[in-house]
Write a structure and sequence with these properties.
By secondary structure, the protein is mainly α. 49% of the residues lie in helices and 11% in strands. α5 crosses α6. The chain starts with a helix and ends in a 9-residue tail after the last helix.
Amino acid sequence: MGKKERSNIVRIGKTIRANKKKFTTTLKNYSRESIPGELITIVREYPAVVPTGSEFELLQDVLSSTDNVYYKPRRRREYQVDSSNLQHWQVLGFQHYADYVGYSQTNGLSGHTADFDFIFHDEKETHD
């Protein structure tokens, strides 16, 4: 009787069943966390500003007195960037969630030990 309770095969089976139950909820959380957000960039173009008054006269004077000098007005562009949809790990500059977790674990930042073990399938660690 004592040997049945201490059988390695039985202990491994129990551990695998327990880990599968724990990983199903964490897998959903990690999959949600690892979905990257989107950086929204809006570009607005405005027509070129034409110089008026004395500026225009000076410009015409320079253009007429020199060769190979041309006036080519360009449109003015205004960029608006919205980063509110980004995940916290994207704001810090990481391309992938696994990179962020690895960096956090390597530098001893708290709260990511379980994430690190889960990503690299380390079954020795216990997940609570």
